[in-house]
């Protein structure tokens, strides 16, 4: 009888422990979900205005052909289909983004995914880069975000010179303007171009 009683106590105790662990897991998941919702609510409207999928309207390009040729790139790429998806960088917050870019040319589709932490950071790259120079190498970059003007800017010091990319969303949240500037190290080139992106979706990208 003592053996039966002992077994029953063990089963009951194990069952209660199992329920407790299950409750703890549910509480943890609930807490994580609430933290994520709180994080999203804490983001400014300016930050949220960048999130989603954007399509470049090549018909509104300004001086993009010349900008590409200044980097020894085919100027005709200025008319290529070009989509960007902006999302908040994981484990980060206000003003920090991960941008997925997909472009289509006559030779197919290419894509890249970059994260922009605020402040100074180093980006490494492999192979030859028309923008950064011979590779493999690394680039000193700096990202800033100004919520009051809805502006995100990235500056880069490369082997070729100085680059800046300044993106701004309008009050409607339907358009993003991207101004790129390249100053060659020897001072022989100083070119600027403007691209206009139209919002396709406000939903954040999910793979």
Topology:
Elements: H1 2-42, H2 45-48, E1 52-56, H3 64-70, E2 81-88, E3 97-105, E4 108-116, E5 119-125, E6 137-146, E7 151-157, E8 161-169, E9 175-184, E10 190-201
Describe what this molecule looks like in 3D.
The chain has 3 helices and 10 strands. By secondary structure, the protein is α+β, with helices and mostly antiparallel strands. It has 2 domains: 1-42; 44-201, Lipocalin (Beta Barrel). The protein has a 10-stranded antiparallel β-sheet with strand order 4-3-2-1-10-9-8-7-6-5. The chain is globular and about 45 Å long.
Brief description of this entry?
This protein is α+β, with helices and mostly antiparallel strands and 207 residues long. The protein contains 3 helices and 10 strands; from the N terminus they run ααβαβββββββββ. It has 2 domains: 1-42; 44-201, Calycin beta-barrel core domain (Lipocalin).
Give short descriptive properties of this protein.
single chain, 207 residues, alpha+beta, Lipocalin, 2 domains, ten-stranded antiparallel β-sheet, 42% strand, disordered N terminus
CATH topology of the largest domain: Lipocalin
Extended strand count: 10
Q: SSE order, as H and E?
A: HHEHEEEEEEEEE
Shape: globular
Largest sheet: 10 strands, antiparallel
Name the poorly predicted regions. Answer: 1-15, 32-39
Beta content comes to 35-45%
Alpha-beta classification: alpha+beta
Q: Round the Cα radius of gyration to an integer and report it.
A: 25 Å
Give the CATH superfamily of the largest domain.
Calycin beta-barrel core domain
Number of helices: 3
CATH architecture of the largest domain: Beta Barrel
Helix content: 25-40%
């Amino acid at each position: 009888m003592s053996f039966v009683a002992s077994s029953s106590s063990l089963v009951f105790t194990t069952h209660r422990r199992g329920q407790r662990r299950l409750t703890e897991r549910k509480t943890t998941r609930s807490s994580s979900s609430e933290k994520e919702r709180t994080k999203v609510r804490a983001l400014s409207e300016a930050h949220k205005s960048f999130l989603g999928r954007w399509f470049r309207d090549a018909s509104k390009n300004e001086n993009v052909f010349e900008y590409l040729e200044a980097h020894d790139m085919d100027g005709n790429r200025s008319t290529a289909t070009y989509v960007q998806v902006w999302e908040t960088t994981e484990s980060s917050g206000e003003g920090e983004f991960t941008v997925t870019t997909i472009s289509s040319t006559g030779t197919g589709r290419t894509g890249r995914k970059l994260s922009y932490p605020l402040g100074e950071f180093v980006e490494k790259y492999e192979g030859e880069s028309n923008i950064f120079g011979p590779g493999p190498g690394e680039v000193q970059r700096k990202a800033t975000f100004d919520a009051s003007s809805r502006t995100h800017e990235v500056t880069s010091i490369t082997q070729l010179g100085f680059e800046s990319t300044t993106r701004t969303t309008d009050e409607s949240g339907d358009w993003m303007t991207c101004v790129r500037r390249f100053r060659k190290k020897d001072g022989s080139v100083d070119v600027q171009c403007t691209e206009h992106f139209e919002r396709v979706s406000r939903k954040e990208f999910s793979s």
